[in-house]
Amino acid sequence: MHAKMGLEEKLREIGIRNKIGMASLLCSNKYGQILTTWETGIGFIVLKTMMDSDNKPNEKLLKPSYKMADENMTIYHTGTTCKEQYNFEDDNEAIVSLINGLYNEGVAIIPSIGTKKLGERPWEIMEKYLAETPARVIELNLRYLYRELISKHAEIFKQNRGEIYSDEYGTTHPNRKLRMSGKQLNYAKYHANIEFESTLGDIRDILPPDQYALIVKLWSNLELRTHLLYVAENSFDAATLINSIKRDPSEPFTGLRETKLPQMSGYALRPYRDDALRLAREMRYELPTFASGGMAIEAVRLPPGWDGKSPIDEKILQKNVGDGVMDIKKCFELGASHAQLGSVAYRGPLNIYDTIRSLLKGLGLANQTKTYK
């Protein structure tokens, strides 16, 4: 009960306006774009803020790349993480300036932070910079950390076989030669989970409950129930369900090394989101949950055969927004305490700001600029 009360108090402290937020907006967006998003009446903005670099020796980082499957409103993307967030090891002044500037403008920001490095030191560095800002509600994107733990314990099999594929999802790689066996994957997961639970305790000590409300963003895999329990047992405040997942797209990305797969977001992510919410409800999960994954993507659905030039019938647009509103309401019916829009922000050519306003209006939240209930 203490964790939930701490979250609610800190959400009010940062100026949250309602329970509908924007998920993982990019700190690389122009400052004015972030402010314009806030002016739509959205309740809060989760801002991708701190991530360390994943530069490898002699490897050129791919530019962010997006491919949209228009027929089912699914988005494939890759090479984005380090482009969307500041490198906290080098860009700390920019991070502090961005967060403080947005708070000064009255924007309810929830910084999203993460690291691909093991140990306590990266989290201590991030806390050092967070302490220079009013940020008191933080989202932790821990799948990168868990990926490194899985990779660490899969290393023994790499030595025996050469290159193999391992990730935080337990993804079955399309190339059979790169796959771990079931026994190998279970070995890696078992030892990764032991370290993961211990690391959660370390993070909570570095970002203590009296100073920070921590929302842990989890991902869809067979360990989700276990990880939800770890989050609750280590005095975190909420869980975001869920993150993007890895999938092999029908049209492959060029330039990817063989052991890298793109992320999948949008409509195809929704069943995983809903299953995660149902799991939390089945567990009678004690922490609030933030629903995320293909949220209200119907609101930017385009008519079949649209030529990209002709005006879209207003009735079609209204129906699409209505369908998006129903999706948001479904998440609340499944037990979510908050909802986060995400993929709709990457679906052109519709005006995302008008779309957000229409969704908020459909939810009865239009012009609700100060009151949070």
Architecture overview:
The relative contact order is 0.15. The chain contains eleven helices and twelve strands. An eight-stranded parallel beta barrel has the order 1-2-5-6-7-8-11-12, surrounded by seven helices. A four-stranded antiparallel beta sheet has the order 3-4-10-9, with no helix packed on it. It is of the alpha/beta class and 373 residues long. It has a single domain, classed as TIM Barrel (Alpha-Beta Barrel), CATH 3.20.20.
Shape: globular
CATH architecture descriptor name: Alpha-Beta Barrel
Query: Total strand count, please?
Result: 12
Q: What would CATH call the homologous superfamily?
A: Aldolase class I
Question: Mean pLDDT score, rounded?
Answer: 87
CATH topology: TIM Barrel
CATH class: Alpha Beta
State the helicity in percent bands.
Answer: 25-40%
Question: What is the alpha-carbon Rg in Å?
Answer: 20 Å
**Largest β-sheet summary:** 8 strands, parallel, barrel
Biggest sheet, spatial arrangement of strands: 1-2-5-6-7-8-11-12
The helix-and-strand class reads alpha/beta
Number of domains: 1
What distance separates the N and C termini? 18 Å
List SSEs in N-to-C order. Answer: HEHEEEHHEHEHHEHEEEHEHEH
Number of helices in the DSSP assignment: 11
Low-confidence stretches: none
> How much β-strand is present in the residues?
15-25%
Task: Summarize, please.
This protein is α/β, with parallel strands linked by helices and 373 residues long. Helices cover 39% and strands 16% of the residues. The protein has one domain: TIM Barrel, CATH 3.20.20.
List keywords for this structure.
single chain; about 375 residues; alpha/beta; TIM Barrel; 8-stranded parallel barrel; 4-stranded antiparallel sheet
